[in-house]
Design brief:
This protein is of the alpha/beta class and 574 residues long. It has a 6-stranded parallel beta sheet with strand order 3-2-4-5-7-6, with helices on both faces. The chain has a 6-stranded parallel beta sheet with strand order 12-11-10-13-14-15, sandwiched between helices.
Amino acid sequence: MQLTFNNVNQLWSYVITATLKNLGLSCAVLCPGSRSTPLTVAFSKQTPDIEAIPILDERSAAFFALGRAKATAKPVVLVCTSGTAGANFYPAVIEAKESRVPLLILTTDRPAELRECHSGQTIDQVKLYGHYPNWQTELATPYADRRMLAYLRQTVIHAWESCQFPTGGSVHLNIPFRDPLAPIPDGTDFTLDCEDFFSGIVSTPLPIIHYQLPKEWQQCQRGIIIAGVAQPKEPEEYCQAIARLSQTLQWPVLAEGLSPVRNYADLNPYLISTYDIILRNPKLAQALAPEMVIQIGEMPTSKELRNWLITTNPQRWIIDNSPTNLDPLHGKTTHLKIAVENLDNGEWGMGNGEWGLYLQKWCEIETKIRAIIDETFENIEDLIESKSAWLISQILPPQTPLFISNSMPVRDVEFFWKPNNLGIKSCFNRGANGIDGNLSTALGIAHHHQISVMLTGDLTLLHDTNGFLIRNKFIGHLTIVLINNNGGGIFEMLPIANFDPPFEEFFATPQDIDFAQLCATYNVEYELINSWKQLQERLKLLPSQGIRVLEIRTNRKRDAQWRKEYLRKFSRDL
């Protein structure tokens, strides 16, 4: 097929979009603006191969794209106009780096002659995101020449690969366009043989490296496995690999609430979910001190666990195929840069003797504390924050994607999320741990995906209410379980809560928002939850379309006090 172009910007943009289509791009998020006109027109012509989604707010758009990339495990493209538009992508760029999510960012710009001269809507966009992208460059100004088009094609291919390998993250291409921006003739007359030009485009696969288990592991009598924060592409396969390792070594698995291991509980008989509470008991913390630790993925949220590892200072091995430093404790650490699925257990037998006694101790304590937690929550009728995570872990339909917002929801999940066999797909933005963009990320995960749920606090939702503007383009369903304690509940857990003023005004920051009215403004379904039975009924069978908010009103100070008292009580009861 041959195409003739009479506008150089359209030729340039066609090569960009067609190259991405051949590489496998399926989603592009486009923010409105003038300078990005050539790319917007080109992407709109690549449908249905590439879904082009217009989103008004650039920050929301970037987090929506982040959610799509998380859900599909493929890069998503972001496009914006010149000026401060691209600066609004910055928080999502940071999150993409820290959580290793592939994003390809195309910021359009004025050409060199219109910079540094007070031309409108122009800022310095070169290396706009500092060191956060995996790679970044500025493209040449469009020129109708086959060699230049070959350069453009190769640069786009390199950008696509760089946002995935050796680890996920963002790539930034700054693209200058001269007028005319609309697809009108500019004197160009160029014919492109598309079949020949785009032939042979192949995305480079990630190499798979297998690794034999170190002998030190088999010789260790007191070892533990920590299954940290993780969103693997194939969660069941990931959990099976951890289970094989655990049963080979006869070591317990301390599973973070944000690890899929807690949602495939039957795969691992040595699962420990209450480690944060166990380690609050000083005698048990000392008695259970390990000689060796295998950390899979990133370190869990628990400060109790981190402080325990600092105090006991065991030899640690980190299994993660990222080249980045994953040891915030700076301990005696060896990093195996592989996926846990590629560990080769070989002909190793099962541990016994002393191994079994240490493992048995962990499992007995887990059984006891889990029974205490479950009995406590079963008898609580009042609407308290902490019960939400515990209840949701048992009532969602199997395989439901659940986005867990930052601040208190992730902590309550770690403390109280009950192991289950529902295969719930936990999602989160724990790279930079911010509350920005959480709603938009959740919508990105749910779009064209399974019916999804979000667990969030009020401030986190309010921080991203522009995400609701996506509703007209959103295909699928998202139920938002809103814990409204009118402020920042996480700050109630910190020492600053004892100093008021300035605590209530400057830290808790209550907003006094009527969420029924807010939802009505955005034409989003709303319901106030008055009992746990009502919540259970609403989550047991989820709608297939739209966005719905289920608000649970709680008392921030009472809930913080409950959490402090019962975490101590559970630990003492051991």
